[in-house]
Amino acid sequence: MADSNVSFFLEKLTNLAIQEASLFGEVEGQITLLRNELPWMRLFLRQASMNRTSDERLRLWVDQMRDVCFDAEDVVDDFMFRVDHMRQQRLNNLKCLRPLPQCIGFGDKLLLVHDLKARMENINITVEKILVNKTRYGIENPKDLETWSFTKEEDLPPTEKVGVVPDRNVGGVDFVGMQSQVECVRDQLLTGTGVVSILGMGGLGKTTLARRVYNDRNVKRHFDCHVWVSVSQEYRIEEPLMWIANSVLTPTPQQRRRVKETELGNTLRDSLKSKTYLIVLDDLWSPQVLVDLSSHFPESDKSRVLITTRILEVAHHTPSYLHEIRPLSFDDSWELFLLKVFRVTTTKPIKVQSDLEELREAVVDKCQGSPLSIALLGGLLSGKQKTPESWNQVLQSIKRHGDDHQPFYLWILSWSYNDLPFYLKSCFLYCGLFPEDHEISARKLINLWIAEGFVQKRGEETLEEVGEDYLAELIQRSLILVGKRRLDGGVRSCYIHDMVRDFLISEAKQSRLFEVCHNIKFTTPLSPRRLSFHDHHGINHSISQHLNSSRLRSLICFSTECLGQKGLDSLIQGSKLLTVLDLRGFGGINELPKRIGQLIHLKYLGLRDSRIKRLPKSIGKLVNLQALDLRDSLIERIPHTIWKLRQLRQLYGGTGVVFSPFMGCLLEGHLGFGELTNLQILAIKWGGWVEDGGLGKLTQLRKLKIQGSEDLPSFQFSSFSCHTYLYKLFLKGRLNKLPEETTFYPPNLVKLKLKYSKLEADPMLTLEKLPNLRILQLLSSSYLGRKLVCSFEGFLKLESLTLSDLSELEELSLEEGAMRGLRSLKIEGCGNMRGLVHGLLHLQNLQQLKLKRVNPELTEELDLAEGEDLRRIRSITRKIQEKT
Questions:
Q1: What sections of 316-359 are H helices per DSSP?
Q2: pLDDT for 492-527, tens place per residue?
C-alpha cells in the first residue's frame, strides 16, 4: 500500500515540476533530489508489500516512509494553495490578468519559494535519516524474506484491457449446489406462513440463496410487492423503512429528506393492506430489528417475511420456518472453484488436465465448503498460470502460513490483497469507505478513484475507461461483487461482502488510507487523510477536531446530518487541501460558504439529494474540479463563473421535471459555456447556451442528457455529427419531429432514450438506420401514434428495446429480418397495445420479454398461441400484472 502512495505522489510531483517550472525553479535541486529518491523508495516498498512478515522493525520503517511521502505531498500542495491565494488577492487588488507566475509580486514569490525550499530540505533530511535507520537497526531487504505474493508486473500489464465475464448469478458468488435449498425455501414462501429464516455463518451463501429465491419466477408471480432490504449493524429504523417505501410507494423529495418513523410506517402499512408482499431482510444482527419493522407491516396470511442471519437468537425469533444453510459438497465446491479460476459461465462440466485434477482434494479441503473462500481462492488463481507448479506454490504457502485460530477466508483475502498490482490496492481498500451492505454506484466509485489520483493515464484511453478496467479486474478476482448491470452489460452497481469490508477497514486503518468516523481512536495524535461518516447522530466535539486538519484530503458523508453550518465552515477553513467533498443527502445547511472557492485542490464535489439551494460565485475558483453532482438538490441556478472550470469532466446539473424548481438547474450567464471542452458527461436543462452553439463546442462528450419541457416549444438542435465520442443521448422534452437525416445524429450513438417527445410520426423509420444503435428506449409520451413499424434489415445492431407508457400505441409491427439481434424487449404501461405475437416469431435471438401493465388481451394471445417458436417465447416471458 505504501508503494502506491509513493507512486501517486511521484507522478504528481513530476507533473507539477513540468507545469510550474518557473515557480519551482529556485528549489529545483531539492525537488530533483526527492524525485530521484522516490523511485528507489517505491521499489523497496513494493517488494516489502509483496512479502508477509512479522518483523515490527520493517513495519515501522514502511510506516515512516509512507508518512514522509504524505508530508512531502502536503508541503507541495500547501505551496500551490498559498500561491493561488496570493494570486487571487493580487487579481482582486490590481485586476491583474497575466499568467500565474507573473501575478505574484517578486517579494511575495521570494518568501513563498524560500519557505518551500526550507520545508523540502527538511523532507529530504528526514528521508535520509529513515534510509540510514534501515541499516542501523538491521532491517532486512524484502528479497531476503519469505515470499508471500507471486505478483509480477507482467501478470497484468497496465496497458492491457480487462473484460468482465457476465455473471451467472448477479448479487453474489456463482450459484452452484444450492438448487435443492432454493426449492425448500421457495416452497415455504409459497405454501407456508409467517417468517422464514435462513441461518448460517458468514461466507456460506445466505444472501445468494435468498437472492435466488427472491428472483424465482414463481415467487415473483405469487406476490404483488417484492422488497429487498439490507440491514446493517449500523441500524436506524428510518433507513430500511424508507427503502421499503421507495419500493412500494413513490415518496416525494420532501418525504425522503424529512422522515418520521410513525408517519412513514402508517403510510407504508396503509399501502400494503390491499396487497400480498414479500419483504426480505438481509443480514439481521438483532431480533429487535424484526420487531421494530414488523410493527409497520399489516398482518396477512398470504404475505411473507424472509430473513437471513448468522445469529441463532435472531433466527429463532418468531420464525414459522428455519432453514440452516449447508456448506457446499465436495463436487459442488470443485465446480465453483473451476468457474472462478477459468472465468466461464457455462453450465457444462469444465474439464481440466489430469495433473490439475489431482489437486482438487487439497483445494476443496482447505475451503471447507465455504462459497466465499472458494470464490476468493479461485479469483486469486484466475490470474495465475494453469499449471500444477503454480497451484502447488499457492497451496504450499497457504499451508506454511495457515493459522488454525484464524478463518481460512482471511488468509486468502490477505493473500489476494497483497497479490494485487500496486495501482489496484488503493482502489480496493477505498471500497471500505462505504457503509455495510451499501450498493455502490460504479460510476461514482470510479469518479472518486479518479479524484483521489488512484487511476493512472494509459495510452489514448480516458481515465473513466481505465477506471472501468480497474473495477473489472477486481470483479474478476472475486474481491468486488456485481450488484446490477446496465443494459449494455457494463456494471451499474457493485458491493463488497461484509466480511471483506471488515478486512478493508482494518487494512486501511493500518495503512492510514481512511477512517470511518465511529472507528477513530481519539487518543492518536495523527489525523486521518480521508474520513467517512456513517452515523446519523452528526459530528460531536471529539470528531470535529479532525475537520480542521491540514492533512484531511477527503470527506464523504452518508449521514443527512453529519455537519452543521459551523462544521462546514470549520472544514473549509482548516482542511484547505481537500480533494473530495461528498455531501450527498446533506440536510445541515442551505447554502455553501463563499470560502468553498479556496479549495483549489478540490476535484470532486457531490451535493446530490442535499438541501443546499445556492452555489456561490466563488465556485468558479475551483480550477481543478473534475466532477460536480447537483442532481435532486434544491439548487436552481448555476453561477456563470462555472465556465472557468476547464478541468470539469462531469457536470450533473439535474434534469428533473420543469415544473419542480428543485428538480433541475438553469444556467445563468451562459456565455463561455463552450469553454468546458473537457466535459465528457453533461446533464443539464435546455437553455440559450445550446441555441448559441455552446453544445457544438463540447466535442469530447460521451454522455448527454438534456431536459426540455413538455409544453414549451420543441428543441432546436444543430447537428451532432461532430460529436464522434458521444454514445449515450437522453432527450427529455418536446421534439414533435425527429430529423430524418442520419448524419444529424452522433455517428457512434449506442444508446438513445426519448421521453415526453410527443412525436407524431413513426420514429422507427429514421432510427432503424442508425448504424451503431444497440439500446432504444421510448418512454412516457415520446410517441403519440398508434403503430410502430420496423422494416426489413432495420436496427441490425439493436439489442434492447423498451416501450413504456405509450398510451396510444396499439401495435408493434416487426417485419422479417428486422431487429435480428434483439435480445431484450420490455413493454410497460402500453394499455392499448394488442398486435405483437406474430412479429415475435422473427426474433430468434430474443432472451427476455417483459410485459408489465399491458392489455390482458396481449398476454392471453401469447398464452393461447401455438407452435414451437411461440413456446420458446412464452418460456422467456415475464408477465407482471400489478394491482391498483
A1: 330-342, 354-357
A2: 999 999 899 999 999 888 888 888 876 555 445 456
